[in-house]
Specification:
Layout: E1 7-10, E2 13-16, E3 26-29, H1 32-37, H2 40-49, E4 59-66, E5 73-79, E6 86-88, H3 89-92, E7 99-108, H4 109-112, H5 116-126, H6 141-157, H7 163-167, H8 185-191, E8 204-213, H9 216-222, E9 228-235, H10 238-255, E10 270-272, H11 276-310, E11 317-323, E12 325-334, E13 337-346, E14 349-350, E15 369-372, E16 380-385, H12 389-393, E17 396-397, H13 407-413, H14 416-425, E18 429-431, H15 435-440, H16 449-458, E19 462-475
Parallel strand pairs: 3-4, 18-19
Antiparallel strand pairs: 1-2, 2-3, 4-5, 5-13, 6-10, 7-9, 7-11, 8-9, 8-19, 12-13, 14-17, 15-16, 16-19
Helix pairs in contact: 5-11, 6-11, 8-10, 10-11
Length: 476
C-alpha cells in the first residue's frame, strides 16, 4: 500500500481522513512493513466501508488485513440502527462464524512423540476433510431446524461433548435470534451431511506444541504451560454459511435502491438493520453461527474419540471457542455515550478485556482468550483481550496471519507433495485428501504471523500469552 495515502499516528496506527463520501475516517493497525505489503485494494475497500450509513467512529483494518469480498478481510465496523445503520452480508463474509476452538489435552510433548504417527492416522480417520466432505450424520428437516436454532447445545443433547464445553464457548454455544425459516432450502440441503467436517481452504485441525509463554499469569489462568500439547480446530458453517452469503448478497444488491443506499461497490451489498431484509439476514446469519458452533462441537467429540484410541490418558477440555466472521449486537462507548451497535468482524476476532460479563467467569479477571491461527508450517498464538481494545477497535483483534498471495499464485510456486515432504522433515505431519489444497495453503502464501501478533499487542488490541507450533495438521 502507498503510505503517502495515509497519516501516520504512531508506529502501529495509520489513519485515512474522511474524504469524499466517507462518513468516518478509517484506521489501520500495522507496522510500516505490513502496511507496505498490503494491496492498495485494502485501502479502497476500507474507504468504501467508511461510506456506509450509520457507521460509528471509524472503519478499522487489523494487522492481518488483505483484500476480501467487499469488506477487507481483517475489517471491523460498527453500525447504529438508530442512525440508519446497515448490516452487510459482505461485511460478515461467506464463511459465516468461521472460528477457532482450542482444546487442552493434559499431556506433554514427550508423551506424544512415539505416538504421533498413530494419532495423525486416527484423527484423519475420524474427522472428514476436503471439498465436499461429508460426515456420519445425515440430518432430516426437523434435525436441521433444531441444529440451526440451538447450535452446540443441540449437539450436546445428541451426546457430542460435555456440558462444561459450553461454558468455554462463545454465546454458550447457542446464538440467540436465529431463524431457521430465513435459511433457504438449498442452503439447508447443502448442510445435511456436512456436520462434523472440516471442509477445505484454510480450515484445519492441528495438534500443537506450546513452545513459549509470554504472559505467565494469563497462561496459568488458561491452563497452559511450556511443552503442553493442545489441539486447535479451525472451521465454520460449511456450505450452509456460503449459501446464505450468496443468497443475501444477491438480494441486498437488488434492494439497495429501494432503501436509498448508494453502494460504492456491489460487493458491499447491505440493508438497513431495521428493515425486513436486514432482519431476515440477521436471522439466517445467526442460524449459520449456530451451525458453526455445532460443527466445532461435533468435531471436538471426534477428536476425543481419536485421542481415546491412541492416548487414552489425554483429557481434552475446551480452553475457548471464538468466531471471526460475524455481526453481533454489543454495547460500546461512542463519543462518550453507551450505544447498542452491530459489530461486523470479518477476519477479525472479538477481544474483550478483563471484566467483561461475556467472558467465562473463571477467566473474567484475565480477559477473553483470542485464538490466532498461523499456517501448517508456522506458529499459532493464543492472545488475551486488553482493556484498551474497546476504545481502539470495538474490542477486536487480528484473526491469523493473513494471506499475501492468492491460492492460484501459491499453486504456481509450490507443489503439495513437495511441501508435505519438507514439513515432514521438520517433524510436522500433514494429512490431506488434496495435494493441491496443501499447495494453496503453503506457509509462504501467508504473512508472518509473529509480526502480525506483535503489532496487535503493541497497538493495544490483544496481548500475547503463548506461542504454539504444529506437530500434526489435518487439512482439507
Amino acid at each position: 500500500m502507498d503510505t503517502t495515502l495515509l497519516s501516520r499516528l504512531s508506529d502501529f496506527e495509520w489513519r485515512i481522513e474522511a474524504h469524499g463520501k466517507m462518513r468516518v475516517p478509517a484506521i489501520l493497525y500495522a507496522s510500516e512493513e505490513l502496511i507496505r505489503d498490503m494491496d492498495n485494494k485494502v485501502y479502497e475497500q476500507i474507504v468504501n466501508v467508511a461510506t456506509l450509513p450509520g457507521i460509528q467512529k471509524a472503519a478499522y483494518a487489523m494487522p492481518d488485513a488483505h483484500w476480501g469480498y467487499g469488506f477487507p478481510i481483517g475489517g471491523v465496523a460498527a453500525f447504529d440502527p438508530q442512525e440508519g445503520g446497515v448490516v452487510s452480508a459482505g461485511g460478515v463474509g461467506f464463511d459465516i462464524s468461521c472460528g477457532v476452538r482450542t482444546l487442552l489435552t493434559g499431556i506433554k510433548a514427550a508423551a506424544l512423540t512415539p505416538l504421533k504417527q498413530s494419532l495423525a492416522d486416527a484423527l484423519y480417520h475420524h474427522i472428514p476433510a476436503g471439498v465436499g466432505s461429508t460426515g456420519r450424520l445425515n440430518l432430516d428437516d426437523q434435525q436441521l431446524d433444531e441444529m440451526l436454532l440451538n447450535g452446540a447445545q443441540w449437539a450436546l443433547k445428541l451426546g457430542y461433548g460435555r456440558e462444561a464445553d459450553l461454558d468455554r464457548t462463545e454465546e454458550r454455544g447457542c446464538m440467540a435470534g436465529a431463524r431457521s425459516e430465513a435459511v433457504s432450502e438449498f442452503a439447508k440441503k447443502r448442510q445435511r451431511r456436512e456436520m462434523g467436517t472440516l471442509g477445505s481452504g484454510n480450515h484445519y485441525l492441528e495438534v500443537q506444541h506450546v513452545v513459549g509463554i509470554h504472559d505467565e499469569a494469563a497462561a496459568r489462568a488458561f491452563g497452559l504451560a511450556t511443552d503442553d500439547i493442545v489441539v486447535s480446530i479451525h472451521c465454520g458453517s460449511r456450505g450452509l454459511g456460503h449459501q446464505i452469503g450468496t443468497d443475501f448478497l444477491r438480494e441486498m444488491v437488488l434492494q439497495a435502491p429501494h432503501y436509498g443506499i448508494d453502494l460504492p461497490d456491489r460487493e458491499l451489498a447491505c440493508a438497513p438493520i431495521e428493515s425486513p431484509l436486514g432482519e431476515t439476514y440477521l436471522g439466517a446469519m445467526r442460524a449459520a453461527i449456530n451451525c458453526a458452533l455445532a460443527n466445532r462441537q461435533i468435531i471436538t467429540h471426534l477428536v476425543r474419540q481419536a485421542f481415546a484410541d491412541v492416548i487414552p490418558e489425554a483429557d481434552l477440555s475446551v480452553l475457548y471457542d471464538v468466531s471471526h466472521n460475524t455481526c453481533k449486537v454489543e454495547e460500546h462507548t461512542v463519543d462518550g455515550h453507551l450505544k447498542r451497535v452491530f459489530i461486523h468482524r470479518k477476519g477479525a476476532t472479538r477481544a474483550f478485556g478483563p471484566g467483561h460479563p461475556a467472558i467465562p467467569e473463571a477467566l473474567r479477571t484475565i480477559g477473553q482468550p483470542v485464538l490466532i491461527g498461523g499456517t501448517m508450517g508456522t506458529a499459532s498464538y493464543i492472545l488475551v483481550g486488553m482493556p484498551e481494545s474497546e476504545s481502539r477497535s470495538f474490542s477486536s483483534s487480528c484473526h491469523g496471519a493473513g494471506r499475501q498471495m492468492s491460492r492460484h499464485q501459491a499453486t504456481k510456486h509450490w507443489r503439495g507433495r513437495q511441501l508435505i515432504d519438507e514439513l515432514a522433515g521438520r517433524g510436522i505431519i500433514i494429512r490431506s485428501p488434496s495435494s493441491r489444497g496443501v499447495a494453496e495453503e503453503a506457509p509462504g502464501a501467508y504473512k508472518d504471523v509473529t509480526a502480525v501478533v506483535e503489532v496487535a499487542e503493541k497497538a493495544g488490541l490483544s496481548r500475547r500469552v503463548a506461542r504454539l507450533e504444529p506437530l500434526i495438521c489435518i487439512k482439507g
